[in-house]
Amino acid sequence: MQPTLYGEYRKLDRGGEARRSLAYLRLRRAIQNAIEFGAFPPGHALPSERDLAKKLALSRVTVRKAIGGLVEDGLLTQRHGAGTFVAERIVKSFSRLTGFTDDLRARGLKPRVKFLERGVGEVTPEEAMALNLSPGADVIRLRRLRFADDKPLAVEATVVPAAVIADPNAIKLSLYDALGQIGCRPTRALQRLRAIALGADDAELLECDTGSPALAIERRAFLDDGRVVEFTTSLYRGDAYDFVAELHGG
Amino acid sequence: MQPTLYGEYRKLDRGGEARRSLAYLRLRRAIQNAIEFGAFPPGHALPSERDLAKKLALSRVTVRKAIGGLVEDGLLTQRHGAGTFVAERIVKSFSRLTGFTDDLRARGLKPRVKFLERGVGEVTPEEAMALNLSPGADVIRLRRLRFADDKPLAVEATVVPAAVIADPNAIKLSLYDALGQIGCRPTRALQRLRAIALGADDAELLECDTGSPALAIERRAFLDDGRVVEFTTSLYRGDAYDFVAELHGG
DNA sequence: CGTAATGATACCACTTTCATACCACTGATT
DNA sequence: AATCAGTGGTATGAAAGTGGTATCATTACG
Predict the structure, then answer these.
(1) C1' nearest to CA of A47: which nucleotide?
(2) Mean of pLDDT values over B131-143
(3) What is the ipTM score, two decimals?
(4) Cβ contacts of B85 on chain A, cutoff 8 Å
(5) B177 and B230 in contact (C-beta within 8 Å)?
(6) Same-domain pairing of A122 and A10
(7) CB B245 within 8 A of CB A193
(8) Per DSSP, what are the bridge partners of residue B156?
(9) Could you tell me if residue A249 is inside a domain?
């Protein structure tokens, strides 16, 4: 039997001794399940917010909160006056290859970004090497200060070939969201991690002392065809970010 | 029957005899067990601090102390005004783990190991927590200094339950070889990486200045049945070692 | 005697949830 | 073209529950 939205929601109700999840999160999971199991094909309209609220005995605020999250994730699309629809191009949710924003959201922290620089320019020789581009090609440069719950956590310098994203302003919060929307979400990445001492400039941005330890991460992300879509150098405050990895195999 | 949080807590109470852990440590272990045995799936809410305190006849201060530790470990997430939740793990999957020895060889460096300590002792509370052992159990402790071309590169402290390997001298070169020979080769490991400043002792061993940045890696390796067979804390000189990881999505 | 663990209590800030109401837009009907 | 029912977008207020924090008292231990 095909899962229904209402059935999915009620199924998630069982919680044993644990307090149930928050209603809007439960509903959100229910909708997401229904979509991923195919109960709602792409383009299909969801019941209206008022209908959902009434049928599930929830308030419209709660329903909107659930839907809102999925809209932000690109799973749903809303059109003012028309309705809520399953997005045509569903961005595969990558459980493992995630960017900073997803990481923080998964941890329940509020991500915030302050742009220090956002512009277009010509590649430097080093960038050309890292991105595998020809000299003279254009790239987008981003320099971002990242906050978690309003505490500075990392400075990040990102270089993206202009051939991938032409308009720097298309990147609002998450680079990976922007890449996903144009179907260029990377499937593989190489990271290089090391510990360094913070320089004066970066230390000031991160509101800690010069020379304090930081985690430096360089990442090159690849598409299926091998093109590099991103080269990012990040400095994470050593006392504020842990990198957790799960290893498999024998 | 699935373990429950309250059941877990009371079970730990019966440890009885002379050695009863502090209440907040016991509760902390109980919660951790409940999570790791799946009683609380990721994303689900714990009972509120007030509920826990009331049901377990503890004060809220004690409950908060227990929860606080797990939050710091990244196992739980708290949101002001919302509740306490089992953290969704940020998992980076390393498909190819560049082992220490192989990596050095690839760089044309000669690896060498010097044992600083190798013996049996009783677990400390922290180790008991990491290895999920009862207080008073015996463990093997290894402390090794790793060199590349005769320059110190890392200090490594490893703890293995004596229940797994009884004789410390059975471990000659590679811990994983020794584990494999008795059929206890781990299939899964969790690593935690962060940047720290070196303390005086470790700095001296690594022949660099106190306070210089280092890469701290904690690793817990698991068997199929979930038992922890190894807990290792490594400190790599920040200026001498890069950690390279390959990430996969989809 | 001091310290640490624990308990009891109170208050604050925040989130969730509900109940309304009204606005702005869409699409189809008239 | 005008209308209208249904949609999402926004705002308000209120109640209940949550974690965050502080204070003070009690107990156990060295």
Answers:
(1) D7
(2) 81
(3) 0.65
(4) 108
(5) no
(6) no
(7) yes
(8) B144, B234
(9) no
